[in-house]
Amino acid sequence: KAGVTQTPRYLIKTRGQQVTLSCSPISGHRSVSWYQQTPGQGLQFLFEYFSETQRNKGNFPGRFSGRQFSNSRSEMNVSTLELGDSALYLCASSFGQGYGYTFGSGTRLTVV
Amino acid sequence: QKEVEQDPGPLSVPEGAIVSLNCTYSNSAFQYFMWYRQYSRKGPELLMYTYSSGNKEDGRFTAQVDKSSKYISLFIRDSQPSDSATYLCAMSPSPSYTGANSKLTFGKGITLSVRP
Q1: Alpha-carbon distance A53 to A51, whole Å?
Q2: Under an 8 A CB cutoff, do A4 and B43 touch?
Q3: How confident is the model at residue B94 (pLDDT cuts 50, 70, 90)?
Q4: Residue B90: CB partners within 8 Å, gap ≥ 6?
Q5: How far apart (Å, rounded) are the C-alpha atoms in residues B72 and B30?
Q6: Cβ(B112)–Cβ(B10) under 8 Å?
Q7: Is A70 exposed, middle or buried (0-12, 13-18, 19+ CB in 10 A)?
Q8: CA distance B20 to B77
Q9: Mind telling me how many Å the CA of A81 is from chain B's nearest CA?
Q10: How far separated are the first and last CA of chain A, in Å rounded?
C-alpha cells in the first residue's frame, strides 16, 4: 500500500517568490493536513482539508494557502516567501477524525 | 504555558535499557493521544495511538495516558540502536469538540540515542 507522497523533496527559492507543494494521500484517506516543522518551533499545524473543504486552519499568515482536489490530492502554496519560511513541510493523511495520521517524508524548503 | 510540554532531552541510553518518554498537557479537551517516531530526513511515523486514559501495549512499546494528571508516557523495553530517533507526542480533541477538532498539537520532540 503506497504511503503519503510529497513532491518535490527539496526546493530552493528566493525571497519574494512563491512556491507550490504537492501531497498525494493514502488511497481512501479523505483528510489531508499540512504542518511546518522547524528546529525552533517544532511541528506546527497549517491547515486541514476534508472532502475538498478547509476544515481547520492554524495561526499562519494569509501567504500560506492550500486546496484539495476531488481525488483528495492536496497542494499548499506560499506566496512572497520570507527567509523564515525555510522549513520542512509535512503532509499527513487520515481516514478521518479519531484515526491516526500518516505523514509523508516532507518537502524541505530553503528560502535564500 | 504551552499546550503540550515534552522533556527536551537529548537522551542517551545503553542497548537493552528501558526508556521512558513523557509529555504533559494543559488542554482538557485532548482525547486522542499519539506517539510518533521521526528518523533523520524522514517524516514522523505513527508508533502508538490511544484514546482516553489507560495503557496500550504493542511489542516493546507501551503507551500510558493519565488524563487526571494530564500526563502521557511512552515506554520502550529492551531498547535497540535502531530505536535511535526523535520521539514526538501528539494529541487532539475529541470529535465532539466544537473548536479546533482536527489538528494535532505536538510536543517539541526528544532525541533518543541508544548506544550499542
Answers
A1: 6
A2: yes
A3: low
A4: A43, B4, B33, B34, B35, B36, B104, B105, B106, B107
A5: 11
A6: yes
A7: exposed
A8: 9
A9: 23
A10: 37
- Omega of the bond leading into A8 within 30 degrees of 0 (cis): yes
Q: What percent of chain B has pLDDT over 90?
A: 71
CA atoms within 13 A on the CB side of B60: 12
Q: Does A98 touch chain B (CB under 8 A)?
A: yes
Distance of residue B111 Cα from the nearest chain A Cα, in angstroms: 12
Spatial neighbors of B96 by CB under 8 A, at least 6 apart, are none
A49: which 3 cell numbers?
A: 482539508
Grid cell in block for residue A66: 492550500
DSSP string, B20-75: EEEEEE--TTEEEEEEEEE-TTS--EEEEEEESSEEEEETTEEEEEETTTTEEEEE
pLDDT in the model for residue A16:
97
Question: pLDDT tens-digit profile of A31-49?
Answer: 899 999 999 899 999 998 8
Question: How close is the nearest chain B Cα to the Cα of A99, in Å?
Answer: 8
pLDDT in tens, B41-81: 899 999 998 887 889 999 999 999 999 999 999 999 999 99
Between chain A and chain B, how many beta carbons pairs sit less than 8 Å apart?
A: 61
Q: Which amino acid is at A94?
A: S
